Amino acid sequence: MVMIIQTYWEMLLKAMGQTLLLCLLSLVFASVIGMIFGLMNVGHNRALNFIGTVYVDAVRGVPLIVLAYFIFFGIPAAIQGLGFSDFRLTALQAGTIALSMNCGAYMAEIVRAGIQSVDRGQMEAGRSLGLSYGAGMALIVVPQAIRTMIPSIINQFIITLKDTSILSVIGFPELTNVGKTVMGNTFRPLQAWAIVGIMYLVVITILSKVSKRIERRVNRGR
């Protein structure tokens, strides 16, 4: 194991950096997607409710690996069939889209639950003061809901970080993919995967501790 670390430490750390980059990019886009579709699901417009529900159910019902294959191989093939023969998606682009869509569906449910956890009287009070529905949501409901959503969002970040390993199937150089390379070069699967597992464990443990600390502060602040 020491020999593997001495030889491949730089490659492994770079792969972890790529993993965190992909995870952070996906979480940013997923937060936007989740907020949009989450608000659709709690609104009073039936058409928007339907669109939000279809998106969440469809994306959550498709395995991430299938979604990644579809975006990386299927979408470019379809666009090339329309005459854009030079269109390609890099593994980072396809991986970010796939993870963002997948995580966004779960974030939408987090947003929906967070908004619905706020007492309805808060919105009614805002409306009685002359605020529109949108202004009441933006100024009263959503800020309170975010306090409730923070621990769940961090937990979703941890889940998304682990889900990046699935994107090794499209060749993205994240930690699991590099772990395969190290194993193939050293013929020491036990040591190689132990190192990869420990690296995931360290990062995820730190994030879990941060999540618990934030949750305690949020609970004290109520």
Describe this structure in words.
This protein is an all-alpha fold. It has one domain (2-221): MetI-like fold (Orthogonal Bundle), CATH 1.10.3720.10. The chain has eight helices and no strands. α1 (2-42) packs antiparallel against α2 (46-60), α3 crosses α4 (91-116) and α7 runs antiparallel to α8. The chain starts with a helix and ends with a helix. 32% of the residues are buried.
CATH level 1 class label:
Mainly Alpha
Q: Supply the number of helical segments.
A: 8
* Total E-strand runs: 0
Report the CATH topology name.
MetI-like fold
Q: Give the number of domains.
A: 1
**Helix-residue proportion:** over 70%
Q: What are the defining features of this structure?
A:
222 residues, mainly alpha, MetI-like fold, 8 helices, 83% helix, 0% strand
What's the arrangement of secondary structure elements?
Layout: H1 2-42, H2 46-60, H3 64-81, H4 91-116, H5 120-128, H6 133-163, H7 175-186, H8 189-221
Summarize the structure.
By secondary structure, the protein is an all-alpha fold. 83% of the residues lie in helices and 0% in strands.
